[in-house]
Amino acid sequence: MKVGDKVRAIADIRGLLRASVPKGSDGVVTRIGYRGIEVTFTVPGVMGGTRTVVIVARLTEIAKL
After folding, report:
1. Among 42, 40, 20, 43, which Cα is nearest to 32's?
2. Range of 18's domain?
3. Helices marked H in 1-65
4. For residue 33, what is the domain's CATH number?
5. Separation CA 5–CA 14 (nearest Å)
6. Rounded distance, CA 36 to CA 56, Å?
7. Does the N terminus or the C terminus of the chain have fewer Cβ atoms within 10 A?
8. From the CB of residue 27, how many other CB atoms can be counted at a distance below 10 Å?
9. CB-based burial of residue 32 (10 Å sphere; 0-12 exposed, 13-18 middle, 19+ buried)?
10. What is the pLDDT of residues 10-33, one digit of tens each?
11. Is position 18 within any domain?
């Protein structure tokens, strides 16, 4: 994977110290580092609309489109 690749969450991504991303959300790889792959996801907002979430994902949590 490289920066700019479009990806999809293949499982619900949750954690104590990171935002939640529902399965099936689309995102874009924004950085690759020693901690993992940083992905910017667009997810449904709390009061409608959408919001942007940036998380560090593992390869087992995302798939390239």
Report:
1. 40
2. 6-64
3. none
4. 2.30.30
5. 22
6. 6
7. C
8. 26
9. middle
10. 999 998 888 899 999 999 999 998
11. yes
Whether the per-residue pLDDT at 35 is higher than 90: the answer is no
Helix, strand, coil content of the chain in percent (nearest 5): 0, 55, 45
Q: Does residue 37 belong to any structural domain of this protein?
A: yes
Strands 50-57 and 62-64: unpaired
Q: pTM above the 0.70 mark?
A: yes
User: What is the count of structural domains for the chain?
Assistant: 1
Summary mean pLDDT of the chain: 92
Determine phi and psi for 22, rounding to 5 degrees.
-75, 150
Structural Rg of the chain based on CA atoms: 11
